[in-house]
Design brief:
The complex is a heterodimer of chains A (116) and B (585).
Chain A (H helix, E strand, L loop, with lengths): L1 H17 L5 E7 L4 H17 L4 E7 L4 H6 L7 E6 L4 E4 L6 H7 L10
Parallel strand pairs in A: 1-2
Antiparallel strand pairs in A: 1-3, 3-4
Chain B lengths: L6 H6 L4 E2 L6 H4 L4 E2 L3 E6 L5 H15 L4 E5 L4 H9 L5 H6 L3 E5 L7 E3 L6 H14 L3 E5 L3 H5 L3 H18 L2 E7 L17 E10 L2 E11 L8 E7 L2 E4 L15 E2 L4 H6 L5 E2 L3 E6 L5 H14 L4 E5 L4 H9 L6 H5 L3 E5 L7 H15 L3 E5 L1 H5 L4 H17 L3 E7 L6 H4 L9 E10 L2 E11 L9 E6 L2 E6 L1 E3 L2 E3 L1 H79 L3 H16 L1
Parallel strand pairs in B: 3-8, 3-9, 4-5, 4-7, 7-8, 15-19, 15-20, 16-17, 16-18, 18-19
Antiparallel strand pairs in B: 1-2, 9-10, 10-11, 11-12, 13-14, 20-21, 21-22, 22-23, 24-25
Helix pairs in contact in B: 13-15, 17-18
The chains are: A alpha+beta (116), B alpha/beta (585).
């Protein structure tokens, strides 16, 4: 039992270490196809394309389609962008008009490719 | 608000209500919370908001088959389950049986940043999903205001909350929203402006070091409701707001009479004792035997097979049992047979209202026919005079509605005018017995009067009552020229009277003897006189006879000599007729 646990923990640690450096995992929760949702999706896609080329795994979830995920992920406001990786976990609520906070969190140098 | 006139008209347009199942709350709100509308429950920390909301849900699911959603913002599902389990609610089981969904909403401010426009659709979706998954009819949001602390944009939050309440109404769910009490407004963040149908205010106050929880329906749109502040308590089976009996005087009355356990006292009360379901006041100073008389009453009732509930605020049950044992009253077997139950509490344990609430609960649980409250005054001391009177009124109303006979004892302070000291209660009582101490001749003696007894011809006499090892004895006090005599003075007076009677008896006997003697003397005299008379009469007769004989002899001699001398016969005849009257004399 104990050995199993340790093994599992080891595996998780290995996995986290093997994730390529600078790999980003982002999840965006939106509620339906509102203007606000679309805006958020566009902004985050833009960001991934411009700044995190190939290093970004983005998941867009419509909570109307999967309401149980809203509960699991403690979603209150929409849209919400959750930065799962790198740790620590951060939530950005809103339509991502203002990305300065996210940039700071992502340790990105603003390269003027997208308007912050 | 306009009062609706006749009741029939009101019921036709009555608002649909959603019963909470919480003891007393449905009475105050006349049927429950407004169905399909949100209700705001506000109050300070620790006054039972979450519990009230949780009980609303649990009772809805269990008693009314209305599943519910609990959206918790403060406590996790696990904590909630543990908290309500201590009150006997099986939240865990209800969640498993899909009667209740608990959704813990956690918003961590530190890991959140605002990055543009947003709304709270996430919350709506979660709530909507939870409601639809079990077909919920009831929703609790506990405590929504946490959002104010965790979401940066208050303007957005406010507009979203407005939308939320509208949405809840559209969904047709009966919602309870809890909120923290604010300094000047009902809630800290002014939630009351969104929830305008029903607002319930909870309060936890400390008065004279005694904390009591209160509940008040501040607002109930479109319905009549009790506007007073009602105390409530959180017990083993959830919340119970004091059952408010209507203060209308329409109790059923009984003509049945019940004995007091003291035969002479029954005799003083029209020969039969008290009326059933009447309220009786027993007043007296310390040590006049109030508890003894009440125990006697309890004993008599329990022996008849009635259930008796004895509230004691001064003595422990064991102490009463022991003390009554000393006067030959066996209470223990009755306690064992569950006919007599004691409920002892220190008056200072909690506030007046809480006492009343526990008493109501006890009475409802035990269903007694006789209740004894010993003494009521120690309860009344907890509040002001008006509070005390209000409490007694409510207690009496409650008991009378249940046809319970109640005996209150009241400890009066020496030196006060009696009528004044009992002004708070006496008018509420049907019978009033006064116990008093008479001090004199170096002793104290107990006396008893019936001051009033509604509806019966009661004795107006003062009686002395004695407590001995075989119980209570009521005896006539001596009332004479020198006032009321009791105790040894009464006994002494009795002896004096006996002596006086004896003396007069002796005198009479002597007089009788004298008269007899005189009569005898007289009779003797009469006898003597008669004897004298008889002797004389005898003498007289003898003399008369002698005279007759002599005359006859004389006549005979004459006739003989006439014959001898050949005399005329006519002469002889005339002499005989002359002799006759002489014999008669």
């Amino acid at each position: 039992m104990k050995i199993k646990k340790i093994r599992r923990a080891k595996l998780a640690l290995k996995k986290s270490l093997t994730l390529p450096r600078g790999k980003y995992v982002l999840r965006l929760f939106v509620a339906g196809a509102t203007a606000r949702s679309l805006q958020a999706v566009l902004r985050v896609r833009e960001l991934c394309a411009a700044e995190l080329k190939g290093r970004c795994r983005l998941e867009v979830i419509d909570i109307y389609q999967q309401p149980e995920l809203a509960r699991e992920n403690q979603i209150v406001a929409t849209p919400t962008l959750i930065k799962e990786f790198p740790k620590p976990m951060r939530r950005f609520i809103g339509n991502l008009e203002n990305l300065s906070g996210l940039f700071a969190e992502l340790d990105l140098v603003v390269k003027n490719k997208i308007i912050v | 608000m306009k009062k609706p006139g006749p009741k029939l008209a009101a019921s036709a347009t009555r608002l649909p209500k959603c019963p909470t199942g919480i003891q007393g709350l449905d009475e105050i709100t006349d049927g429950g919370l407004p169905r399909g509308r949100p209700t705001l429950v506000c109050g300070g920390a620790g006054c039972g908001k979450t519990l009230l909301a949780a009980e609303f849900l649990v009772r809805g699911a269990v008693q009314f088959d209305e599943p519910g959603v609990l959206m918790a913002f403060e406590e996790t599902e696990k904590e909630l389950k543990a908290n309500v389990a201590s009150l006997g609610f099986d939240l865990e089981g209800l969640v498993r049986r899909k009667k209740i969904v608990v959704d813990y909403v956690h918003v961590e401010r530190s890991e959140m940043q605002e990055s543009g426009e947003y709304d709270l659709e996430g919350l709506f979706v979660r709530l909507g999903h939870a409601i639809d998954s079990i077909g919920a009819k009831r929703v609790v949001l506990d405590t929504l205001e946490v959002l104010f602390a965790s979401l940066p944009n208050e303007a957005v939050l406010r507009s979203e909350l407005r939308r939320l309440f509208r949405w809840l109404k559209e969904k047709g769910v009966t919602a309870v929203i809890t909120a923290e009490r604010g300094r000047e407004s009902l809630t800290r963040h002014g939630l009351e402006e969104y929830v305008s149908d029903c607002v319930i205010l909870l309060d936890h106050r400390v008065n004279d070091q005694i904390a009591t929880r209160h509940l008040r329906v501040v607002k109930y749109r479109g319905a009549l409701h009790g506007t007073n502040e009602f105390p409530f308590l959180i017990g083993d089976d959830g919340i119970s707001v004091l059952p408010i009996t209507s203060l209308a005087l329409n109790h059923q009355v009984s003509t049945e009479r019940i004995a007091t356990g003291v035969p002479r006292l029954d005799a003083m009360l029209g020969g039969k004792g008290f009326f059933r379901s009447s309220s009786i006041l027993l007043t007296g100073t310390a040590g006049t035997g109030k508890t003894t008389i009440s125990s006697n009453f309890a004993h008599a009732a329990a022996r008849r097979g009635e259930r008796v509930l004895f509230f004691s605020f001064e003595e422990s049950p064991n102490q009463i049992v022991r003390n009554m044992h000393s006067i030959g009253l066996q209470l223990e077997p009755l306690v064992k047979r569950r006919l007599l139950r004691f409920h002892s509490q220190r008056p200072s344990l909690y506030g007046l209202e809480m006492h009343l609430a526990t008493m109501f609960k006890e009475i409802a649980a035990f269903q007694p026919q006789v209740v004894i409250i010993d003494p009521i005054t120690s309860l009344m001391d907890l509040g002001t005079v008006s509070e005390g009177k209000g409490m007694v009124t409510r207690l009496i109303d409650y008991l009378k509605a249940g046809q319970v006979t109640t005996l209150f004892t009241s400890l009066t302070q020496g030196g006060h005018a009696l009528q004044q000291s009992e002004s708070g209660m006496s008018s509420l009582m049907d019978a009033w017995i006064l116990l008093q101490d008479f001090e004199g001749n170096g002793e104290r003696n107990r006396v008893l009067y019936v001051l009033k007894a509604r509806g019966m011809a009661h004795s107006n006499q003062i009686r002395e009552f004695l407590i001995s090892d075989h119980g209570i004895d009521v005896v006539d006090a001596y009332i004479g020229a020198s006032g009321v005599l009791t105790g040894s003075a009464r006994v002494a007076q009795g002896d004096l009277e006996k002596a006086a009677v004896l003396a007069s008896q002796q005198e009479a006997a002597q007089l009788k003897r004298e008269v007899e003697r005189k009569r005898k003397a007289l009779e003797r005299q009469i006898g003597d006189l008669r004897a004298d008379y008889e002797t004389e009469a005898l003498e007289l007769r003898r003399i008369a006879e002698q005279v007759g004989t002599r005359t006859l002899l004389l006549g005979t001699e004459r006739t003989a000599s006439g014959i001898l001398r050949q005399a005329d016969a006519k002469v002889a005849a005339s002499t005989r007729s002359k002799a006759k009257p002489g014999r008669k004399i």
